[in-house]
Each structure stands twice: as C-alpha cells, then as structure tokens.
Amino acid sequence: MKFKALLKLAVIPVLYLLAISPIIYYLEAIQSLLMILSGLFLLFLVRFRDFKVSSKNAPFIASFFILAFYYLFYFSNHTFKLIGESFLLFIAPLFSYYLYRIDSFTKNIKKIQFAYSAAVSALCLYFIVFYINDIPNHHFDWYLARYNLEFYCKIHGTYICLWIGVAILFLFDYVSDFKKSSKTLKGCSFLMLICLFAGLIIYNSRNILLGLFIVVLLRLAILKREKITISIKQKISIAVIILLIILLSQRYLDAIDFLTNDSFKNSTRYASWTCSLKLIYDSHFFGMDYNLIQQKLNECYVPFNNFELKKFRINSHNQYLDFLLKGGLLLFCAFIWSLFVKLKETLQQKQYLYFSVTVLFAVAFITENILVRQYGIYIYFLCDILLLGALFRNKDHGINEVKEC
Fold first, then answer.
1. Cβ(178)–Cβ(234) under 8 Å?
2. Is it the case that residue 401 has pLDDT exceeding 60?
C-alpha cells in the first residue's frame, strides 16, 4: 500500500516532465526514459486480477500482441526495443484509467496539457528566431528555409507540426472558458497561440494543416448539432486564420501548381504507396519480415528513376500501409478498430478534445509513418495516457469493476 501511495505521488511530476520534454527534444534519450518511467508507473498501478478484456480494450491488446508476434517471429537485434515501443503505444495507455482514480491527476491534467502547450510554444519561438536570423540564407524561399530548419534543428517538419497541432488543441481546451480566466492567462495564451501558428506556418506540413482544418469543420458541425451558437466574431476569426494559413503556405500553392502542370505519378508519394501496395499484395496480406521492408521498397523504386528515391531511404509514408506491411490484415484491422473505438466513445461521451486529437492523428497517418520514429511515438503516447483512460469510466466496461487501490 505504501508503494502504491508513493507511486501516486511520483507519477504527476513525471507526467509534467514528460509534457515539457519537447524543450529538450534533441536529447532523445531523456524523452525516451520519461516515456518508459511513465509506462512503468502505469503498469505498477494496475490490479491485473480485476482487469478484463472487453470490446473497448480488445483492439489495443490485439494490436500489441500481433505486432509482438511478428517482431519475435522475425527476431533481430531491435526486436525487444520494438516490442517495448508497441507496449507504450497500445498497452500502457489502457492503464491510464487508474490515473483517473487519483485526485491529484484529475486536478492537474489540464495543467499538464497547458505545460505541454507552453513547452511547444517556447520551441516555436526558437524556430521563429532561427527563421528570422536565417533570412539572408533562404530569402523567404520556403523549401530552403525548411531544409535549414530540419538540418540544424534536427526534427522533421511533419512531427513538429503534429506536436504544434496537439498543443493548439490542448491550449484551446484549457482556455475555452475565458470568463473564468485572468487577464494574465489570456495574454499568455494569446502569445502562445501566435508562436504556435507562426511555427505551424514556418514548418508548413500540409497534412497537419489539413487535419486541423478537418477538426475545425467537425467541431463546428458538433456545435451546430448541439444547437450551440457561434458568434459572428468567432466565425470571422476562424475564417481569417484558415485563409492566412493557406495564403502564407507556399506548399499549398505549389501543390496546386504541381497538379495542374505535372502528374501525381511523378511524385515520391505515388512511388512509395504503389510499391508498398505491391509488397502487401505479394505477401498475400499476411505481413512480412520488417527487416526486409526497406530493402524491398528500394528494389521496387528502381524503375521510377527518381533522384529522391535513390538518395533517401523512403518508407511507405503511410502508417496504415506500414502496419499492413508489418502485420498484414490482422494488424491493420486491429489498429483501425482501436481508432474507431476512440472516435465512437469520444463522441458518445462528449470528450471532444480527444476526438479532435484522434482525427488529427488519423489524417497524419495518411502521409507519414508517425509511429515509427520516437517523436511520433512520444506525442501519440502522451495524448493517450492523458486522455484514453477517461473513455473507460462508464459502467459497461470491465475495467471499471476494479476496486479502489
């Protein structure tokens, strides 16, 4: 009992540290250690004799065991590391239900989210300063500017934009009721939003911007369904923000130009998706040795005669295809089922923040293997341990039968 009490005291500071770890993102080992500590704390809080498999947690458990089976079946030096990452993605977040039984967690969860948003805002401020100082080198050429950012700051644009997107959603949720907020908090939140949107425009990941746009449309539809009126001022603000992002986004304008003057078949995305589908078909939808996936993709890229495909290790660039390659239809279906559970339960329980985060990830998965790199694993893990447990508090779920620790 004393051990459990100490865990409850220690878990909150660890979660705060995990939330602000983007500030030291370049020290990946520290961020990895904080994820492992958080996962272990959640594991120790569980009373397994009371834990029951149900239709809600089954897809998460199935995803983990299917992945673990394939990793062990094609054993390599990285197998246990990959199994550990799968545990953090699919099993540890299920135990976050027990966090919601700790008063200190329920009191601090929004503050933890705000701490994360503040950390990412500080990171964006650093990117803004870097961008301004680098103007003599890039002369406002977006491609050169982003190349310099990624080269010197050592973080891929899609991942940092995903971090920023989640930070924006967390921040809007935190300050949603301005009537109870102080002027200082309003001012800080406004400055943070400026930094976040500036960082989003500078790095300019199209799929994350598209994901946020879809989230806005869905949230507006939800408000309309619930007969909650939105002021003209709020509608104009949303429209202006979206318009500014599109107009300031060189990538969207270039994408339109590319589609009108060139063919999608000349893009690396077409090649990576085509070759991934070919490998999936060749494996008879049963999955394949994950150690050979990149090699076989590279062999498939040869006829395309594309410079980028020759120079870089281009993966499937689609998380859904990645899971089809690694675990076949079984893993793909289990993973889709887990996303469906999240979307269904968040809508039913009106957990709209988690609904928005899930939609953002679902869109991001279309163009990137988010759950392959640590930066993607980190943000997915953080969102799930903070928010997933809330979905399992209703009476029809077996885990709710757990007695107080």
1. no
2. no
8 A C-beta contact, residue 368 and residue 320? no
Per-residue model confidence as pLDDT tens digits over 322-360: 999 999 999 999 999 999 999 999 999 999 999 999 999
**Residue 273 CB contacts under 8 Å (≥ 6 apart), including other chains:** 316, 317, 318, 321
Write down the residue that tokens 């309003």 correspond to: 186
The Cα 255–Cα 96 span in angstroms is 41
**pLDDT, tens only, 31-59:** 999 999 999 999 888 887 777 888 899 99
Nearest to 43 by CA among 88, 111, 10, 92: 92
Q: Taking the alpha carbons of 203, 201, 357, 215 in that order, is the dihedral positive or negative?
A: negative
- What does the alpha-carbon distance between residue 120 and residue 22 come to, in Å, rounded to a whole number? 6
Helices (H), 21-102: 28-45, 58-73, 79-86
Are 90 and 60 contacting, i.e. CB atoms less than 8 angstroms apart? yes
184 or 233, which is more confident:
184
CA 376 → CA 51, 75, 210, 370, distances in Å?
Answer: 28, 24, 18, 5
| Cα distance between residue 244 and residue 124, in whole Å | 18
Supply φ then ψ for residue 70, to 5 degrees: -65, -40
**Whole-number Å distance between alpha carbons of 56 and 255:** 40
